[in-house]
Design goal:
This protein has 300 residues and is an alpha/beta fold. The chain has one domain: TIM Barrel. It contains 12 helices and 8 strands. Strand 6, helix 7 and strand 7 form a beta-alpha-beta unit.
């Protein structure tokens, strides 16, 4: 098997805000320290969970610069690239490179639904904006553009494309990718409530969402899968599953930020047009979170 540049748990980190929606870099930094202490092997800033599209260009660059400073080379820091134009995505990638980012998680251009030719062109152009390694974020559920296993074969000539974040919610894709491209790319899963099944099928990493509220448990569960301790992993997964489902809802940012708050690792504040949860919906999500906190397993 070829040496993998990236593998393990790369959490998608929330961007912390104050109640007035101002950027809270200090709170984000504290959360990053807790994640690094748990044993993660990378950080993904300014992704979907990081509310990328609500940040202005200066704020995005501030978040990346802060994360690089906090990491101090202990783990790679990736930035999500989710601009509406290819040119702006290239500029952002180049700026992040100058700020010390280790690489990128590149999404399709936002808003416009590209056809296959346009989508591959966008990825090639943005990926070539720097020499840094990058992963392609395939999320047809959220972003309508689907990069198939056959298209990943077409992209194998791009040397700095080193990983795939596969979020189609179709676990068949894992085997299809392995058959099509072998170990050419590090294969990450990006759908929390498919992590056990995906691990059985053979993945290299996990872009974790809900687990950022439970970093020690999240890392322990991942290590169980790496060790092939499937009975133990299955038992822990049954505790984890309701929490992992928070990642698969339209309001996954609201839900996960609320979990982060209740776990003492940040605050629930989201940026408009999102609004904090209220009423029965808030109580339902809090019930799931509080039950998870009350019954969290003893780690050995």
């Amino acid at each position: 098997m070829a040496a993998l540049l990236w593998q393990g748990v790369f959490p998608a980190v929330t961007t912390q805000f104050k109640q007035d929606q101002a950027l809270d870099l200090e709170a984000t930094a504290r959360h990053l320290e807790a994640l690094i202490d748990s044993g993660v092997t990378g950080l993904v800033m300014c992704g979907s969970l990081g509310e990328n599209q609500t940040l202005d260009p200066t704020e995005k660059r501030s978040v990346v610069e802060m994360a690089v400073g906090v990491a101090r080379g202990r783990v790679p820091v990736l930035s999500g690239v989710a601009e509406t134009s290819t040119a702006e995505a290239c500029r952002f990638a180049q700026d992040c490179a100058r700020l010390g980012a280790s690489g990128f998680m590149i999404m399709p251009a936002m808003v416009y639904k590209s056809d296959p030719r346009e989508a591959l062109h966008h990825f090639r152009r943005v990926g070539s904006a720097t020499e840094l390694p990058w992963m392609l974020y395939n999320n047809p559920v959220g972003y309508t553009v689907d990069i198939t296993a056959e298209q990943f074969v077409e992209l194998t000539d791009i040397k700095n494309l080193v990983a795939i974040k596969e979020s189609s919610a179709n676990t068949r894709r894992i085997t299809e990718l392995r058959l099509a491209v072998g170990d050419r790319y590090s294969l990450f899963v990006g759908v929390d409530d498919l992590i056990l099944e995906s691990s059985v099928l053979g993945i290299d990493g996990w872009i974790a969402g809900s687990g950022i509220a439970f970093p020690r448990e999240n890392q322990y569960f991942w290590e169980l899968t790496r060790a092939g301790r499937w009975d133990d992993a299955r038992e822990m997964y049954r505790w984890f599953y309701p929490l992992l489902k928070l990642d698969t809802h339209l309001k996954f940012i609201h839900y996960i930020k609320l979990a982060v708050q209740e776990a003492g690792l940040g605050a629930e504040w989201v940026r408009e047009p999102r609004l904090p949860l209220t009423g029965a919906e808030r109580e339902r999500v809090l019930k799931i979170i509080h039950h998870g906190l009350k019954t969290r397993p003893q780690l050995t």
